[in-house]
Amino acid sequence: MGGDMFRNILVPTDGSPLSRRAVEYAVRLAKEQKARVTGLWVGPAWEPNLYAYGNSVPPGFVSRKQHAARVRRAGARYLRAVAQAAKAAGVRCKCICAEGAFPYLEIIKTARRGGCDLIVMASHGRRGISRLLLGSQTSKVLALSDIPVLVCR
Amino acid sequence: MFKRILVPTDGSAPARRAIKRAVQFAREQKARVIGFYVGPPWQLPIYSDYVPPEIVSPKEHNAAVKKTAARYLGAVKKAARAARVPCSVRYVLGAHPYDEIVKEARRRRCDLIAIASHGRRGISRLLLGSETSKVLAHSGIPVLVCR
Lengths: 153, 147
Fold this sequence. Notes:
The structure holds 2 protein chains of 2 kinds. By secondary structure, chain A is α/β, with parallel strands linked by helices. Chain A has 4 helices and 5 strands; from the N terminus they run βαβαβαβαβ. In chain A, helix 1 packs across helix 2. In chain B, helix 2 (58-82) links the parallel strand 2 and strand 3 (87-93). In chain B, strands 3-2-1-4-5 form a 5-stranded parallel beta sheet, sandwiched between helices.
């Protein structure tokens, strides 16, 4: 088996059970297609409190650096699952932790930059309410992607 | 991983591209391709008590759909034959293509639906086709959305 149709499979995860299923799918498919997997987790963007505090720093203020460290730490936990699944299957894997207010944009950007040729995604992640609704990020990725998207249920 | 891939087509250019991809993917997966077309059901044009002169009989309508289906599904068969992928095709009449697609996938125990992001009625590349988004909503199996 194996071919040259899909060589680099992007699998964005938000750590939800459905997206873990998508990771399983991506890794299995990558193994069969002799492709590699790019895991992606998108954390929230840094949003400083921009109130009129004058010179005072509000309590609980998080600096840009601290925020980046937190995102990296949170992302590492979710991406470890991807790396482990890939390792167990003997699939080459690279994990990327991004930061942005709009996860779908980061997904599209990462796919383009990394030269991915397939995105494997859950039909909905954390915020998907109903089985009849497509997740907000998934539907935006479907609308904007230039490459095929495999939507897992 | 995937053994039976359902490939719905409406004969449009995006659907033809999806067929190409689906067949190539099926070859790599050693899967079977099932081409599928949903034609419009026969409808009696009713204008109160006036019957228009060039009315199409159900028989004529069915013949026309059959011809269209043969053309659209012929593209699937041809692509599959060229790639030496096992292939079968089927068409049905139905007012709601997405419903027929999801039902057919279940009936034929498919494990993947490969479909274009939009077909005939997809206007903008920023919109997902209406039938595709409904298939995505109702399908119990993974869907490969091709651009």
